[in-house]
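Practice problem 4.
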């Protein structure tokens, strides 16, 4: 029995040896394969596909203006007319100044009333307090028995607040033969697209050739509205299909301006403030893409002057998103509070460059600090 068991064990051992030797013969060199030791290597990341281009193809349409567009009003007469309209407007700041100048004697109740009126004119609490303190000090010394003296003091203080030394010129000239590029930003509903149309008329009146870019591709009828203005003014409009990439439309518009040898390209942009991050990404992309064609020379922020503090909030957000170089105050008519001119400049450190009064096609003019103050102090 033990002899049988021993024989079986010997057979199993012999079979196992035979299998192992057979497998070794199947390997190269007849030896078991060894795993290589891990050594550091310079890894290279290989892209499996080309990155997506920032400038997407867009089926841009160039709309040429009809022959014989309306002739714009000359810049000089436009400015004079707008000053007259501002002087006759019944805004809160003008009312407060008129009340102060009408008093033979200014008591504490008068100063309190005046201060409250300035605050409600969107001048801002800090600016109002500073102005009232300076006026009280100077008028207490000079007296108010002479209305001309009081008016002169008030004019000097207001001018200092409006900051007449700020550069208010529009940067519409490019370098080295490139067109100037004006990006116009602002919340939808502020009159942004209408302002662009009026700005085009101002530029045409200055004998500049203009191309409009309808890069607000998300708002229904925005491109149609801008195209209508282009036809009215006599300048071409570059537009894309609704919902197309705004940056691509802007790119095409500036390219058209370069090809035509135009002086200025004015680009409309979307004004959605649902998410600041989305707005930042979109406007930042538009600016980057435009500058593949030519540098942006001016970024104008359009603010509805009737919105007061809400307009200042919008201004702060846009100033964080893009490098705003100038303010356009739309709707600065009789219902507006003129103090926003001062408060928005103090808030952003950016000059008000253009103002709009009323709905007329030529109701847009360069802002003039002295003219603004004199109009507020006008008695008729």
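Answer key:
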């Amino acid at each position: 029995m033990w002899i049988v068991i021993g024989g079986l064990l010997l057979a199993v051992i012999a079979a196992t040896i035979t299998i192992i030797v057979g497998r070794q013969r199947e390997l190269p060199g007849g030896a078991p394969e060894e795993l290589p030791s891990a050594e550091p290597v310079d890894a290279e990341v290989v892209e499996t596909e080309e990155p997506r281009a920032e400038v997407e193809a867009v089926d841009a349409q160039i709309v040429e203006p009809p022959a014989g567009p309306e002739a714009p009003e000359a810049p000089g007469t436009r400015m004079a007319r707008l000053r007259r309209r501002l002087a006759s407007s019944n805004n809160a700041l003008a009312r407060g100044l008129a009340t102060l100048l009408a008093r033979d004697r200014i008591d504490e109740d008068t100063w309190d009333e005046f201060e409250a009126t300035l605050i409600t004119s969107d001048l801002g609490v800090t600016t109002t307090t500073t102005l009232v303190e300076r006026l009280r000090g100077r008028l207490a010394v000079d007296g108010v028995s002479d209305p001309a003296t009081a008016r002169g003091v008030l004019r000097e203080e207001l001018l200092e607040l409006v900051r007449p030394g700020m550069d208010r010129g529009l940067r519409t000239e490019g370098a080295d033969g490139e067109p100037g590029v004006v990006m116009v930003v602002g919340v939808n509903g502020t009159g942004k697209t209408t302002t662009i149309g009026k700005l085009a008329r101002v530029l045409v009146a200055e004998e500049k050739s203009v191309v409009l870019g309808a890069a607000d591709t998300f708002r229904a009828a925005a491109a149609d509205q801008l195209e209508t203005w282009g036809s009215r003014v006599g300048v071409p409009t570059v537009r894309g299909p609704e919902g197309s990439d705004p940056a691509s439309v802007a790119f095409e518009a500036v390219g058209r301006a370069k090809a035509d040898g135009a002086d200025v390209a004015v680009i409309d942009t979307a004004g959605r403030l649902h998410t600041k991050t989305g707005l930042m990404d979109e406007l930042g992309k538009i600016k980057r893409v435009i500058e593949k064609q030519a540098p942006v020379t001016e970024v104008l922020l359009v603010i509805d002057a009737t919105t007061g503090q809400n307009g200042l909030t919008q201004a702060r957000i846009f100033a964080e998103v893009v490098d705003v170089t100038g303010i356009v105050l739309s709707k600065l008519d009789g219902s507006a509070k003129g103090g926003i001119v001062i408060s928005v400049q103090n808030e952003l450190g950016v000059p008000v460059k253009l103002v709009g009064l009323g709905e007329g096609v030529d109701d847009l003019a360069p802002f003039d600090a002295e003219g603004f103050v004199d109009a507020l102090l006008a008695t008729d």
